[in-house]
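Figure 2 data, in text form.
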Amino acid sequence: MPAELPYTFAFLETATETLRAIAHPHRLLIVEMLYQSKTLNVTEIYERLGIEQAVASHHLRILKDRGVVAVKRDGKNSNYALTNDSYFQILEVLHRVI
């Protein structure tokens, strides 16, 4: 009798969607920047990346929708933070194996 697989198909579907959400160079850089800085606003993110504000907002929305980042409003600013530092560990693992 074959051994039971450790992960359910439902979990793997969710994992795939999360990986798809971070699978872009700008989004991976956002994960790294938020890991290092803990919290950044949109202006800090798009200026560091050297991209347009609308592009940064698009990437942040994708990350937020998948639960990778959380946003807190502070007046006119939206401050972003990782929901879990383990998202940065995904990048570290990739760095070791690629």
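Caption note: The radius of gyration is 15 Å.
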